[in-house]
Amino acid sequence: MAQSRRSPPRLAIVKNTEQLTPNMLRVTFSGDELLGFPTDAASANIKFLLPHANQDNEAYRASLQGVGAKPVKRTYTVVDYRENSNELDIDFALHADSGPATLFALNAQPGDTVAIAGPSSAKLVDVTADWFLIAGDMTALPAIEANLKQLPADSAGYVVIEVQEPADQRDFKLPEAIHIQWLINPEPRSGKSNLAEVIKSLPWPEGTPYVWIAGEVSTVRTLREYFAKTKQLAPQHRYTSGYWQIGQDEDAFQLVKRQIID
Ligand SMILES: Cc1cc2nc3c(=O)[nH]c(=O)nc-3n(C[C@H](O)[C@H](O)[C@H](O)COP(=O)(O)OP(=O)(O)OC[C@H]3O[C@@H](n4cnc5c(N)ncnc54)[C@H](O)[C@@H]3O)c2cc1C
User: Fold this and answer.
1) Nearest CA owner, ligand 1 atom 52
2) Which CA distances in Å does 106 have to 3, 23, 26, 93?
3) pLDDT, tens digit, for every residue of 87-121?
4) Which of 65, 68, 178, 222 has a 20 to 30 A CA-CA distance from 170?
């Protein structure tokens, strides 16, 4: 498992972009400062340290040295870091109310630079569990992908993923006894997600599962309560994390998150 490392921010250079599906954009980064990036960080998160709107490059570079306004922080997941080509992939779920991170990705051109901090520790399921329940929305898809890649071939359980449109579905290679269900929510900020309801209706097999859930915070809170209280699932058997909040940018959301146990 990747350990949390506090290294100074690295300047990453956009190498290319790829539209994976209509609402998911992959940006591949490279650059000398990425050399030595941990190779076991798939599913871990990084922080983009972005410039403020209309900030010039000099002021932005100074902000990275702790001078002036702090850079804008946004959290994303490591999909893959390939040591041999020194390439880091980050997948951006595109959303209508684009904030600084989404705008950065939408406008990214080869040669653009941005600072990144991290990675954190990896966010992987305990593969020794009896069965698995892995779920989330498009912001969780990169970490879900990393988790699915490391499931043993005899794993059983469920994967439930909410995407914005049918064409956002991906083709994952899954163990035979893992059942995947795709839900469509064209308006993630409408508050009309049925992810929690669908998960609560799933039959609960024998044995102790490992449950991994991430996405919009109200859905995650509903499910955390369901697993803790209704299913009496101990914390070591679950990862539940709010990744964003309807109507709040990440700065406001993280402030609240630090006050409430998340
Ligand atoms: C540990 C962790 C890992 C994450 N990994 C990823 C990842 O790999 N890929 C990814 O795409 N996201 C990921 N996220 C979520 C991402 O950090 C947020 O979606 C973030 O708010 C996007 O920043 P922004 O600058 O585009 O929007 P912000 O400036 O933060 O927000 C602007 C507006 O957009 C809304 N908004 C934010 N996200 C969404 C959304 N997904 N759908 C609809 N409305 C939204 C907000 O409510 C706000 O109203 C992760 C979050 C965490 C905590």
Assistant:
1) 243
2) 31, 11, 10, 10
3) 999 999 999 888 999 999 999 999 999 999 999 99
4) 222
Ligand 1 atom nearest the C-alpha of 254 is 53
User: Are 220 and 170 in the same domain?
Assistant: yes
Q: Are 10 and 37 in contact (CB under 8 A)?
A: yes
- 217-245 confidence digits (pLDDT tens): 999 999 999 999 999 999 999 999 999 99
Of ligand 1's atoms, which has the minimum distance to the CA of residue 92?
Answer: 11
Phi and psi at 121, nearest 5°, equal -75, 160
Q: 138 C-alpha to center of ligand 1: Å?
A: 10
Residue 233 lies inside a defined structural domain of this protein = yes
Name the residue at shortest CA distance from atom 48 of ligand 1. 249
CA of residue 4 to ligand 1 center, whole Å: 21
Boundaries of domain holding 167:
131-259
Rounded CA-CA distance 104/50 in Å is: 8
- d(CA 120, CA 250) in angstroms, rounded, equals 17
CATH number at 25 reads 2.40.30.10
- The arrangement of strands across the sheet holding 156-163 comes to 177-184, 156-163, 131-136, 209-216, 238-244
Give the number of C-alpha atoms closer than 13 A to the C-alpha of residue 228, restricted to the C-beta side: 11
Of 117, 143, 158, the position where a domain reaches its end is 117
Question: Is there a single domain that holds both residue 158 and residue 200?
Answer: yes
Distance 171 CA to ligand 1 centre (A): 23
pTM: 0.96
**243 Cα: distance to centroid of ligand 1 (angstroms):** 7
Question: Is there a domain that residue 126 lies in?
Answer: no
Coil vs helix vs strand at 168: helix
Q: Is residue 197 part of a domain?
A: yes
